[in-house]
Amino acid sequence: MKRILKLLTPALLMVLLTAVTSWGAKGTLMTEAVVRRVVTDYLVQRSENQEVTIRLKSLGYSGESLLPPGEVSYEVVAPQEWEGWGRKSLALIVRVNDRVEKNLTLNVEVEALANVVVATRQLEFGMLLTSGDVTLQKRDLATAPNRVCRGIDEVIGKRVKVGMRVNSSLRADYLEKPPLVRSGQMVTIIAENSAFKITATGRARGNGAEGDQIMVQNPNAQKDIQAVVIGEGQVRVEF
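Now predict its structure.
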């Protein structure tokens, strides 16, 4: 029996142990350790594609409870909009032979360690970020700012809109793409399809970074057209 248990995954092992204890005439003992394992497994599965390391810091459940004899199953229910870390109230539904025996509210606190982009120096307004200005560090997403940047590629080449102190986590909304076109600037208008390509000169009616849509005036037609910024002083129109 011991050899068989060693070959099982923790989740399958828990199910097996539950089934074994359920054979007793007195039923199954639901302990704090069992509840912690159930909730932890749920949190890990929920965050498996987010590149985080999950730790259940507090559970909001203690003691033990004797359940009736039968097959025990557990279901964890969390708010749909919850990211999966920080403080939150979860529901734990305990069933025996598919009959609800307990519906518990668990006030949990969850730590989620992940790589985030951190400033290696004071970041001043207007700076264009380079690889020397930032690094990756493990931080708890539960205490990190909203819209924290998770990858170096997210920030390199962007301009600082709001100054940030050394060792602070970078926020995406504190950065912006530098404008490649400025209002009033003469730009090259490119119109192309699979058959041909046409270029003309126009005047930008607004500022724009790569991928932004701006209005451009075509001097020949004296008409404003919508275009997409594709490079320094270059825009593309669709037709």
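The radius of gyration is 28 Å.
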